[in-house]
Every structure is written in C-alpha cells, then in structure tokens.
Write a structure and sequence with these properties.
Helices cover 28% and strands 21% of the residues. With 345 residues, it is an alpha/beta fold. The chain folds into two domains: 239 residues, Rossmann fold; 98 residues. Strands 1, 2, 3, 4, 5, 6, 7, 8, 9, 10, 11, 12 and 13 form a 13-stranded mixed sheet that branches. The chain is globular. The protein starts with a helix and ends in a 7-residue tail after the last helix.
C-alpha cells in the first residue's frame, strides 16, 4: 500500500488527474469549514494553545514532535496538556482522560503512546473544544498542545506548526484524492512554524533554506531529526542500546503513516531485517507478529502499545525522540509567552 501511495501521490506526475474535479470539491469543502470555524471564534481560551499538524496525508513525525514540545515547555516552567482526537479509539464517553494503562481500543494508539512517553495529561475527544474545556475545568495544565489538530478549526489556537517529511515534501502538489495535500500549500502562509523531519540541509541554527524542500517556502522553517534512543522488551522491560541491532536478524513491523522511515532507521542501525508494513493504525493480531526462528521482533512505540498484551518474548520496541534546534525551541517559548497572560518563568 505504501509503495502504491508513493507512486500515486509522491512521484513527479499526477496519475490520478482524472479525479481533479474531486480535488476541487475537497478544497471548497475544506476552505468553507475553515472560514466558518474561524468566524465562529469569539475569544481565545484562558490558556495558550499550540497546534501540531500537517497539510499532507500520511506520517510526518507529528507525535514525536508533540512529545518533544512537551519537554521543551516543561523545561520553560509550563504544565502542558495534550489534546487528541483519539483516532482509532472508541470510548463510551468523552472527554477521556488517558493514562499509561488506558486501552488503545478506547483512546487510540497515539494518545496512549504520548501518555507513556510524556507522563502529562492527555485528553481525548473528537470535539477538541470540549476536550479543552474539560482540561480547563479540571485545572490539568496551563498550555494545551493539540496533536494532529491543524484542520480541527473549532479549537482556537495561538501557535500553529506544520510538519513535513523531508523526503516527501508536498508530493505532486495536488489535493486529495489526486495528491497528498489536505489543504493548499498557501495554507502555510498562516502557520507560525514549518518543521521538516529529516531535512537534508540546514544552517547553524537549524533553519532550513527554501530551496531545500521543493514547493515549500516559509520564513520560520526548521529541521527536525528522529534519534533512536533505546530498545525496550515488551514483555520484560529490559532495555538495550539501539546499536545492539547491528548484524542482528530481525522481523520489523510498522503500522504507521510512513513505515519506510522506520525501516530505513533500522537499516541504518545495521539490522538484517525482514520488513513488514501494515496500514496506519492497524489493529494487530498475534498472527501479524510472525514466527521467524532466530529473529528479534522490532516495532514502533505506537504499535507496541497495541501489541503488549500478546507480544512474544522476543518483541522489542525501538523508541525514537525528536531532535529540534535550540533556536526553534526558544522561538516557540517566546511566542507562547507573548500570547499568554502567564508571566515569564
């Protein structure tokens, strides 16, 4: 599926050009929704809201960026709360306050992963405005980070970040279904920061030049990298260095938006892998995990939260963390302080 998407959306041509009228309709609906939601905003929330999202379909690294922003804001004295739609989860009641032990079937895989990675309150609700109200009523924190919330316009926001995959960019530049764009590229004119995951060029402060990513220009464009930090056994909690995979035979599985990035990371670590991609947010079953003799099973943290209850003894999670330029982190904190009634820390 991923290779098909790469050919249809991320190549130079537009093989689905016959669907262009649907792209026009998609754009009209998206822009109408945005205009109505923005017009409906009567006032900001009493705490600042930072939105992380993208204008392309598929994985770009939003969740690792969200986790990194949590740490950045905590270091500056803030108490972050993560707001999420909870894609793939089906709770009986919303809002849902997620803990490390919440079932992914209720909250979705990414909220549970973020709760485990950050330890901060994570509130799930398809209505993010309602999630924010819940967080305010329960005094859960003093800044909200909306994960994958760029197109959820009902939630007022103070800062918007759009994330791109450095190797994919805007693809063929067309809107869904002809291309990967959720919104036109000119939507970037209204966001505060653009983050390029895996940027191949950046200056000493981590800024990405416009010519480094075809089709994207922004005055505040920064590089991001994903750094493998540790391997953790799903059954025992044993921890190993990622470098221990060098020369190791593994079966790697990934049910994320861009599994190729995960497989490339394992390849760079020197693993001899059998790579098995699954659809994003795949609901894993025991039979999906495989039984190759003498191989370790390695998966993403997002998939690990769904496989923990039935994982075999040889199942390991490769954890990664977003590496961000200090100049970007400073700029985010300064902008938050400028848009908040909370005094500087």
């Amino acid at each position: 599926m991923t290779s098909l998407v790469d050919r249809l959306w991320y190549g130079k041509g537009r093989p689905l050009f016959l669907l262009t009228p649907l792209s026009w309709l998609y754009r009209a609906i998206a822009e109408s929704r945005r205009r109505k939601a923005v017009k409906a905003h009567t006032q900001k929330l009493s705490v600042p809201v930072l939105v992380v999202g993208n204008i392309t379909a598929g994985g770009t690294g939003k969740s690792p960026l969200t986790a990194a922003l949590v740490k950045t804001l905590q270091s500056a004295g803030w108490r972050p709360v993560v707001l999420s739609r909870g894609y793939g989860g089906h709770a009986s009641d919303y809002p849902l306050l997620v803990t490390e032990d919440t079932l992914p079937a209720l909250a979705g895989d990414e909220p549970v992963m973020l709760s485990q990675a950050t330890g901060v309150p994570v509130v799930v609700d398809p209505d993010r405005q309602r999630a924010a109200t819940y967080a305010l009523d329960h005094a859960l924190g003093d800044v909200f980070i909306s994960d994958d919330g760029l197109q959820h316009y009902r939630l007022p926001r103070d800062i918007e970040l759009s994330v791109f995959d450095g190797s994919r960019g805007v693809g063929n530049g067309a809107l869904i279904p002809v291309g990967p764009l959720r919104e036109p590229v000119d939507r970037l004119n209204t966001v505060d920061f653009v983050i390029v995951n895996g940027a191949t060029a950046a200056d000493d402060e981590g800024r990405v030049p416009a010519e480094a990513l075809s089709g994207i220009e922004h005055p505040h464009m920064y590089a991001m990298g994903l750094q493998p930090t540790r391997l953790v056994n799903l059954k025992t909690g044993e921890t190993r260095w990622p470098e221990s995979l060098e020369g190791q035979k593994i079966r790697s599985i990934a049910g994320i938006g861009n599994p190729t990035r995960f497989f490339d990371t394992l390849k760079a670590l020197g693993a001899k892998q059998i790579a098995v991609p699954f659809p994003d947010h795949h609901r894993f079953r025991p039979e999906d995990l495989g039984t190759e003799s003498g191989h370790l099973l390695v998966m993403t943290a997002k998939d690990g939260v769904k496989c923990r209850s039935f994982a075999p003894d040889n199942a390991w999670v490769l954890h990664v963390e977003a590496q961000l330029p200090e100049a970007f982190s400073r700029a985010v904190v300064e902008k938050l302080q400028a848009n908040s009634k909370v005094p500087d820390s």
